[in-house]
From TrEMBL:
<keyword id="KW-0500">Molybdenum</keyword>
<dbReference type="InterPro" id="IPR046867">
    <property type="entry name" value="AldOxase/xan_DH_MoCoBD2"/>
</dbReference>
<dbReference type="InterPro" id="IPR037165">
    <property type="entry name" value="AldOxase/xan_DH_Mopterin-bd_sf"/>
</dbReference>
<dbReference type="GO" id="GO:0005506">
    <property type="term" value="F:iron ion binding"/>
</dbReference>
<protein>
    <submittedName>
        <fullName>Xanthine dehydrogenase oxidase-like</fullName>
    </submittedName>
</protein>
<dbReference type="Pfam" id="PF20256">
    <property type="entry name" value="MoCoBD_2"/>
</dbReference>
<dbReference type="InterPro" id="IPR016208">
    <property type="entry name" value="Ald_Oxase/xanthine_DH-like"/>
</dbReference>
<dbReference type="GO" id="GO:0016491">
    <property type="term" value="F:oxidoreductase activity"/>
</dbReference>
Amino acid sequence: VLPKAGQPCNYNVYAATCTEVEIDVLTGETEILRTDILFDCGKSMNPEIDIGQVEGAFVMGLGYWLTEQAIYDPSSGLELTSGTWDYHPPFSKDIPIDFRVNLLKDAPNPLGILGSK
């Protein structure tokens, strides 16, 4: 069902990711060897920008899971960590050695501008 003219529409964005990680069981240190991402962005207007956005989102997610820790006071809800002095965002050494991002082909969005999402 198409929305009325001038009305916003909802659409889903999908991706599939597979990552190969080496973990030192004695120290807990990790090294990301390879990541493959297939991303559905509809019809890409600029593939280089879209791939850069996917790479950036992946690295941001790495930070959430591996290096960052926001601590909140359970009674007040106030954040106790004051920024990157208390945790460390990912560095270039944390990015996968082999990082492959592909955009799903032939998947235009009929509701988006020029088929994009």
